[in-house]
Amino acid sequence: MVLRLNIGCGDAPTKGWVNYDNSPAVRLAHAPLLSRLLRGLGVIDAGNVAFIANCRRLGIQYANAAHRIPHASGTVDVVYSSHMIEHLDRREAVSFLAECLRVLKPGGVLRLVAPDLRWSILEYMEKGRADEFVAQLQFDIDRPRGLVDGVRRLLSGGRGHHWMYDGPSLSRLVSGCGFAATEILPAGQTRLADPGGLDLREREIESVYIEANRPTLTQS
Description:
The chain is an alpha/beta fold. It has a domain at 4-22 and 63-114 and 162-213: Rossmann fold. The protein has helices at 24-28, 32-40, 46-58, 90-103, 117-127, 130-137, 146-156, 167-176, and strands at residues 4-7, 18-21, 61-62, 76-82, 104-115, 180-185, 207-213. A 7-stranded mixed β-sheet has the order 3-2-1-4-5-7-6. It is globular. 32% of the residues are buried.
């Protein structure tokens, strides 16, 4: 049986895949009393409540993939992660990729989608709007203000970006973490034999797409 993981799926899990996210909403999906308490205190809003309900309804599972992906070594056929790696700092990104390498079978495929820094820069060069450019990068630069903001930060850990990539820089990072046959792909293309319900054009305009393999014995 093919085992395919979607890491950092948010509220858009892929049907037929095992879907993981590290949002506190995933844990709160199994703690309805705590969710109601936090809503009553104003720590979470109606949008958070809806996300929590979706996590419960869609069967999204919790994993901190920068620490550990909850599967045995060499058991996974595909790992997919879209617009997640930029939320990790560099050390966490390397740890996450090491976990992907560990759980994948030899020859297994890693597919990453990330915001394309080159696209953002070209947008800035064309429009010349510095504030819009910086906001678009979504860096985690706002300090929490007040008790409620502080509690929200404590719960979420901050949801902004901690690094940005273009195709070549993300490709170098993946290859440097031990993957083979790393390739930048156009939107809509994949080396996966059966992507199932995976959106191969997810956030197409702003994204870069990378695929790589865990080395086989012949690639080592």
